[in-house]
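Hi D.,

Good news: the full-assembly prediction came through. Inputs first.
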Amino acid sequence: MMKLREIFEAYDNHIVPTYTKQPLIFVKGKGSYLWDIHNRRYLDFFPGWGVGNLGHCHPKVMSAVRDQISKLIFIPNNFYHIPQAKLARELDFWTSSRFKVFFCNSGTEANEAAIKFSRRFGKGRYEIISFSNSFHGRTLASLAATGQEKYKSGFEPLPLGFKTVAFNNLEEVKAAVNDKTVAVMLELVQGEGGVNLAQKDFVLALHKLCEEKKLLFIIDEVQTGIGRTGRRFAYEHYGIIPHIITLAKALGGGLPIGAMLVRRDIADILGPGTHASTFGGGPVICKAALAVLTVIQKEKLLKNTQDLGEYLKGCLLKLKEKYPLIKEVRGLGLMIGVELNKNCNFIVDECIKRGLLINCTHENVLRVMPALNITKKQIDQAVSILDEVLFTV
Ligand SMILES: Cc1ncc(COP(=O)(O)O)c(C=O)c1O
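Then the structure:
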């Protein structure tokens, strides 16, 4: 068994320090709880940075993975296997048979696939319009699409062909469209950018503009998808059908997967040899993802997300009445942001001391995204810890 000091030293000495870290070492997870190396229990209201829609170690995901590992761990994409066929069919069901899927391993790869698809589709048109405060990933093209300078700084030159315009501003989109424009890329609820909701009239008008100008409407559902907002996908709230959606995070129940879903009438533009991923859609991850989708339906988690999302938002609004430090509470389903008048990192630290894990994004927005199977009792516990923290600061 490694000593605490050895663990921290191993990270310091041997790992490229790209992450700001909390000094917590976790050893076990179950549902909405995590246990650290001292056997201290934490209530996790930000499981896996958007990965844990079923919480930690859901038994159905664990048994699916165990079952598949005992039969066949990996098979490359030049052969067929049953878990990928089943997952593709299930995603088809989840999206009412509108899309075909390309499997990869992460959100940024799903967006790269969408960008590459757009370039093939465009036949010379290649510009993609994205939005201020968006986040689409860290690989170079997804980074170029990301509308936040802090992530790009020092990595220039980024791939050409990306324009950022103000979020929720149709006039800026119209002004940015030219004969090279091929697509628009949007998060319907910006996650890393501070839990900002796209306005319905804006999205509808943007959708119409895309149809008129023959632009692809790409919705990045990496954080909002798989039930997070109380619908299977956030686009359902808006009554639109995008040309492409990208998924990752919660789809794999804790294992890495990404997926680009593209409307079936154009999907075959990416023919054999045009794009690939060695690990994408491997048997183990596909079995895990199938379990995730099945559990969400069987355990009626969309309903729970809608109901408890409203309940949680109500509790947080009550805190807003009590504490002028809170500027706004906003969100969709169980993706909720609490905007403060100042930097919120210290709140996160105080919550950790009291056994609650939440996130601070965009400097002053507390991001609360508990598992979709969270209970009212757990919400009450979390809100009472937050109340205590806000009272004492
Ligand atoms: C909306 C969105 N898109 C893309 C990504 C990138 O996903 P990944 O870290 O899996 O590459 C993220 C990650 O936070 C995200 O929130």
